[in-house]
Amino acid sequence: MKITIFTSNRLRHNYFIQEMNKICDELFVFQESVSLFPGKYSNIYDKSKVIEDYFDSVKEAEKKIFTNNYIKPEKFFFLKNMLANDLKYLNFSDYKNFFNSDIYIVFGSSFIKGEILKFLIEKKAINLHMGISPYYRGCDCNFWALYDNRPDMVGSTIHLLSDKLDAGDILYHAVPSVNKDPFIYSMLSVKSAISSLSERVLNEEIFKFKPVKQNKSLELRYSTKKDFSEIILKKFLNKKIISIKSYNYKKYLINPYILENDKKYD
Question: What does each C-alpha distance from 218 to 56, 70, 191 come to in angstroms?
Answer without folding.
Answer: 33, 39, 25
